[in-house]
Write a structure and sequence with these properties.
The complex is a heterodimer.
Chain A lengths: L10 H10 L7 E3 L5 H6 L10 H16 L5 H22 L6 H5 L1 E3 L7
Antiparallel strand pairs in A: 1-2
Helix pairs in contact in A: 3-4
Chain B lengths: L1 H12 L2 H7 L4 E3 L10 E11 L7 E13 L2 H15 L9 E17 L5 E15 L1
Parallel strand pairs in B: 1-2
Antiparallel strand pairs in B: 2-3, 3-5, 4-5
Classes of the chains: A mainly alpha, B alpha+beta.
């Protein structure tokens, strides 16, 4: 005879474990203006001048390749930081410059610094 | 890479539902002409890198294809859906290249304030395009 099996899932323990995983291997490349998206994607009056997308694409494959050989979260965090700043440098070369406000506002931040 | 632009233009123009929705071939590459009637479809190249992982040439491109509508978010979204049907996981013929693959990689949605209280809605997607040498 086959009896019933009750499986108890301790979600509290799982959530406790998940909280211990450092959530720091994340960087956000962003601008600090209200018109960066119009430069990136264009308007009805102006063609797009992409600068974020080329930067992201340039570092995408090197980032994925690097993740394959890294083994601990500290190394991944350091590597992520480096890649983000590489992308920042590339974005700064692509961005259209008029007053320089958009270029100077480009930055790399951790999510918590942006309230995310 | 003019061949990719031509292939995208041809594919979008061949979408009868899209053309009907636009009321004609209001599809533009990179920039719409001044005074173009709304709604329209605009696509442009956003990025392109070489894979350089094998002797066979492989290019990874990102194109943005979006609807631009005046004061009508719903209409922009409907046109975006029609673009998606034509470009997401579809096969196109690109002159001079062999394998072609494209897939939607993300959404684009933003509003552009215009003069006189007009709002232009931009809805579309970023499409990843892989080209391999013939």
């Amino acid at each position: 005879m086959i009896g019933n099996v009750t499986v108890m899932i301790d979600m509290a323990r799982l959530e406790q474990l998940m909280r211990k995983i450092p959530d720091k291997a994340v960087r956000i490349l962003h601008d600090g203006t209200d018109y960066g998206k119009y430069q990136e994607l264009g308007t009805t009056k102006m063609a797009a001048h992409p600068f974020m997308t080329p930067a992201a694409e340039a570092v995408r494959q090197p980032f994925l390749d690097g993740l394959k050989v890294l083994r601990n979260i500290e190394d991944i965090d350091t590597f992520t930081d480096k890649v983000a700043y590489d992308a920042l440098g590339i974005a700064q070369t692509y961005v259209a410059v008029d007053t320089g406000r958009l270029k100077n506002s480009l930055a790399v931040s951790k999510p918590e610094a942006l309230g995310l | 890479m003019n061949a990719v632009g031509s292939a995208l233009f041809s594919t979008l123009c061949a979408g009868t539902a899209l053309i009907a929705k636009l009321g004609g071939t209001a599809i533009y590459n990179t920039v719409a002409y001044q005074g173009a009637a709304f709604p329209y479809v605009l696509f442009f190249k956003a990025a392109g890198v070489e894979a350089n992982t094998s002797p066979r040439r492989v290019r990874k491109l990102v194109y943005v294809a979006k609807a631009v509508a005046q004061d009508d978010l719903q209409e922009a979204g409907e046109i975006d859906d029609l673009i998606d049907v034509l470009l997401h996981e579809q096969t196109l013929t690109v002159n001079g290249w062999g394998t072609y693959w494209s897939a939607r990689d993300g959404d684009i949605s933003y509003a552009e304030p215009g003069e006189g209280g007009v709002t232009y809605f931009h809805r579309g997607g970023m499409y990843r395009v892989w080209l391999a040498g013939a």
